[in-house]
Amino acid sequence: MWTVTDSPIGPLRIVARDGAITAIEFSPFRPPDTGQPLGFQQDDDPLLRRAVDQLAAYFAGDLTEFDLPLAPRGSTFQQAVWEQLLTIGYGDTASYGEIAHRLGKTNAASRAVGLANGRNPIPIVIPCHRVIGANGTLTGYAGGLERKQQLLELEQDALF
Q1: In a shared domain, residues 89 and 145
Q2: What are the mean pLDDT values of the chain's consecutive 10-residue runs (160 residues total)?
Q3: pLDDT at 129
Q4: Looking at residue 103, what is its pLDDT?
Q5: How far apart are alpha carbons 27 and 80 in whole angstroms?
Q6: pTM here?
Q7: Same domain, 28 and 84
Q8: In total, how many domains does the chain have?
């Protein structure tokens, strides 16, 4: 099941399955993956409403930590990277190399971390936008660098 909500970075499609959020998608929305059908639009579902409310509070600068059941689908390595993303605090950033080191890997794994980061199916809630290049530059973001910059600025503005 799914719903769409407006946000300062464009419409977001929130997808849930078996009592957990499985995806948040940026517009323009892609057709559903045949292996993971979307189901029906259910704007009044309690879990989807909760996700919409928490996203609205986040964008208003009133929420710094999400409290939603999450079930992202990915490889064991991707899951490990996404777990590390959840440890990057609101308004903070980490480099791809830092994430690799947290996973017990060397800097050589930075590219693999970047690829896993880019495959994060639940952006914003699993804060892949908080991962930046080693030199502090904004690098790749599935939603586009403009959205990444907007999200980082939103968090910085809310802190000050």
Answers
A1: yes
A2: 96 97 92 70 97 98 97 96 97 94 90 93 96 80 86 83
A3: 95
A4: 95
A5: 27
A6: 0.92
A7: no
A8: 2
**Residue 66 forms part of a structural domain:** no
With tokens 């970047």, the residue in question is 114
- Told to judge if 4 belongs to the known catalytic residues of this protein, a careful annotator would answer no
Residue 27 within a domain: yes
* Annotated catalytic residue within 16, 126, 128, 152: 128
Q: Which residues contact 6 (CB under 8 A, 6 or more apart)?
A: 12
- What is the reported pLDDT for 120? 96
